[in-house]
Design goal:
It is built from eleven helices and eleven strands. By secondary structure, it is an alpha/beta fold. The protein has one domain (17-312): TIM Barrel. The strands form three sheets. A seven-stranded parallel β-sheet has the order 3-4-5-8-9-10-11, with helices on one face. Strands 1-2 form a two-stranded antiparallel ribbon.
């Protein structure tokens, strides 16, 4: 394929001026089976998080439901006192009553969300959370608008610096923007699955950071043949893997993109970060974009979608 190369930004600005590198690290995999309990090899997890920072990563994504709680505590143990340049984003709203994914639920009333933020502050040993996400809009104990207002109040009180929304629909994002500023959104969006396409477009239009989950997935097996037919020749040209090309496509495709691939392997970590240096041509970007429709609705929504994301993400790159 031919065509001009597109220059990639090296940083992303969140909210009122927090600047981070273009690829972050998602820490969810540093938990036990089914994202329950502590990661089995504690020393390895500590060493990996320290390597994340040593490799120049300035943005780490976690959530109180990862473990629950053990993921945040692990980050504190490995990295506190934190480098001045490090931004830690966390999320609240999900609860788990046991080790099965079916034990997941969500709570969104004002008292619970404020408590969740305070407890994340305590576990992470932070005075303020730079970016705090509502992890799901699927709560039944409070309307969505009220939950967004709660986050706005938390920002006004200084608990959090910026507000993020996870797994919301385009209509919900539009509603939230009538209430307060939104700094970041995270939904499922990759070369194969474009559930978050409408949310992505609003993010681009409004200058909101777009953080896709499962950012580097390329399908395998018979269903993945048409994806590999397009992506593998690009990878060969760049002496890269198909997953690296998929990550590079995210950065080329979306201004303000902040993918957060997760891994428990230093080798995979370095490969993920190296994707930021890959330059795709306009023709290559367009060819990958055409592989999946942008207007296909999500198969599932809210907590069901995130639970599926947790199930899939937890078994990647072990």
């Amino acid at each position: 394929m031919s065509g001009p190369f597109q220059e990639l930004p090296r940083t992303v600005t969140i909210g009122d001026g927090v600047t981070v590198g273009a690829i972050g690290y998602g820490a969810m995999q540093l938990t036990g089976p089914k994202v329950w309990g502590e990661y089995p090899d504690h020393d390895k997890a500590i060493a990996l998080l320290r390597e994340v920072v040593a490799q120049g990563v300035t943005y780490i994504d976690t959530a109180d439901v990862y473990g629950p709680h053990s993921n945040e505590e692990l980050i504190r143990e490995a990295l506190h006192p934190y480098p001045e340049s490090l931004v830690i984003a966390t999320k609240g709203g999900f609860v788990r009553g046991g080790p099965e994914y079916s034990d997941m639920s969500a709570v969104g009333n004002k008292q619970y969300l404020r408590q969740a933020a305070y407890m994340s502050l305590r576990r992470l040993s932070l005075k303020q959370i730079d970016l705090y996400y509502l992890h799901t809009p699927a709560m039944t104990d409070a309307p969505f608008e009220e939950m967004v207002e709660t986050l706005a109040g938390m920002r006004q009180d200084g608990l959090i610096r910026s507000i993020g929304l996870s797994n919301v629909s385009a209509d919900q994002l539009r509603t939230a923007l009538t209430i307060t500023d939104i700094a970041a959104v995270t939904v499922q969006y990759n070369v194969a699955i474009r559930d978050g396409a409408a949310v992505r477009q609003i993010a681009v239009d409004k200058g909101i950071v777009f953080s896709p989950w499962h950012p580097g997935i390329v399908p395998g097996g018979p269903d993945g043949e048409r994806f590999h037919a397009v992506i593998d020749p690009i990878a060969q040209r760049l002496n890269a893997t198909s997953q690296q090309v998929a990550l590079a496509w995210q950065l080329h495709r979306t201004p303000g993109s902040l993918p957060i691939p997760g891994t428990t392997s230093v080798e995979h970590l370095k490969a993920n970060l190296a994707a930021a240096a890959l330059q795709l041509t306009e023709a290559e970007i367009d060819a990958i974009t055409r592989l999946s429709p942008e207007d296909k609705p999500a198969l599932v929504a809210g907590d069901e979608q995130q639970a599926e994301g947790i199930r899939a993400g937890a078994v990647m790159e072990r």
